Automatic annotation (TrEMBL):
GO cellular component labels: plasma membrane
Location of the protein in the cell: Membrane
UniProt-recorded name of the protein: Cobalt/nickel transport system permease protein
Membrane spanning stretches: 20-38, 44-61, 68-87, 116-138, 249-268
Lipid bilayer topology: Multi-pass membrane protein
Keyword annotations from UniProtKB, A to Z: Membrane, Transmembrane, Transmembrane helix
Pfam families listed in its UniProt record: CbiQ
Organism: Streptococcus merionis
C-alpha cells in the first residue's frame, strides 16, 4: 500500500540519505543538534542551518508533506521570541556587554542591536535542528531506528517501544483523517468554513473515540508481544540492521568535526556567545 505523503512519518525514497544506516543518521543528528544548541556563534549556526536546508532538499521530501509541522513550529517560534523580548527586552545587552540603541520604546521596552542579534541567533537555531529532526524521522524506517538505538547501547526493549511509537503515529494520523472525512461526508462541517467552537467540538468528537481505540490497540499489541515471549532474552538480532558504509563514516566524521569546532569556538569566544560588538 502506498504511503500517504501528507502523513508525518517514514517516507520511502531513493536519496543517499534514505540509504544511510540509521545509527549514522542518529549519531549525526544528536551530535550536530547538541553542538548547535550549546553555542551561540552565529557563523557556525548559519553554516549548519544552510547545510541542513541543503540536505533537506537532497532528501526529496516535499514541503507540502510537512506544512502542518512547519506551521506549528512557526507559531511556537514566534511565541518564544515574543516571550523572550517581553520578559527581558535588553537581555542581549547584558550578554554582549554593550548597548546600541536603535529605537526608544515605551518604558523598559527598547530596541537595541544586541537584543535583535540575540533573537536572530535564537531564530536561526530552529533552521538547524528542525530540518534535521524532520529529515531523520522521514528517512529512517522505524525498525532501523530501533536497531540504531540498540547499537549505541540502549536496551532493545526501549528501542522496540520507540519503534512501535514511530509506527503508530502515522497510523493514528491516517485513522484521524479517515474519521474526519467520514464525519464530513455525514454533514459535520469541520473545515475553516465552520465556526471555531464548532470545529473544536467536532474534533473532540473524533479525538476522544480515537484515544479509547488507541488504548485498546495498545493492549492488543502488548498481549501479543507477551504471548511471543518478548523480552525473555537479554539480547536480540535485528533484520533491518545494516553495516556502516563510507557515507555513514563520513556523516559521523562530519558530526564529530562540528562538535570539535563548537568546543574550539567556546575557547575562542571565551564562552558560548560570538560577540561582534
Amino acid at each position: 500500500m502506498a504511503s500517504n505523503p501528507k502523513i508525518l512519518g517514514y517516507q520511502p525514497g531513493q536519496s543517499f540519505i534514505h540509504e544511510m544506516s540509521g545509527v549514522s543518521k542518529l549519531i549525526f543528528f544528536i551530535l550536530v543538534s547538541v553542538s548547535v544548541m550549546a553555542t551561540y556563534d552565529t557563523r557556525l549556526i548559519l553554516a549548519v542551518a544552510l547545510a541542513s536546508m541543503v540536505l533537506f532538499h537532497l532528501s526529496g521530501i516535499k514541503w507540502r508533506q510537512i506544512t502542518f509541522v512547519l506551521a506549528f513550529i512557526g507559531i511556537f517560534l514566534v511565541i518564544n521570541l515574543v516571550t523572550i523580548y517581553l520578559f527581558s527586552p535588553e537581555y542581549g545587552v547584558g550578554i554582549y556587554e554593550s548597548r546600541t540603541l536603535l529605537a526608544q520604546g515605551w518604558g523598559r521596552f527598547t530596541v537595541t542591536a544586541e537584543q535583535l542579534f540575540y533573537l536572530f541567533n535564537v531564530f536561526i537555531k530552529y533552521f538547524c535542528t528542525v530540518p534535521l529532526a524532520i529529515l531523520f524521522l522521514m528517512t529512517t524506517h522505524p525498525s532501523q531506528f530501533a536497531s540504531s538505538l540498540n547499537q549505541i547501547g540502549l536496551s532493545y526493549k526501549v528501542a522496540y517501544a520507540v519503534s512501535l511509537t514511530l509506527r503508530y503515529v502515522p497510523d493514528l494520523q491516517e485513522e484521524y483523517s479517515m474519521i474526519k472525512k467520514s464525519q464530513e461526508a455525514r454533514g459535520l462541517e469541520l473545515s475553516q468554513k465552520a465556526k471555531l467552537s464548532q470545529r473544536i467540538k467536532g474534533n473532540l468528537q473524533i479525538i476522544l473515540p480515537l484515544i479509547f481505540s488507541s488504548l485498546n490497540r495498545i493492549e492488543t499489541i502488548s498481549t501479543a508481544m507477551e504471548l511471543r515471549r518478548f523480552g525473555q532474552h537479554p539480547k536480540r538480532t535485528w533484520y533491518t540492521q545494516q553495516a556502516l558504509s563510507k557515507i555513514d563514516y563520513l556523516a559521523i566524521g562530519l558530526s564529530l568535526l562540528v562538535l570539535i569546532v563548537t568546543l574550539s569556538l567556546f575557547a575562542l569566544n571565551e564562552g558560548r556567545f560570538y560577540n561582534p560588538f
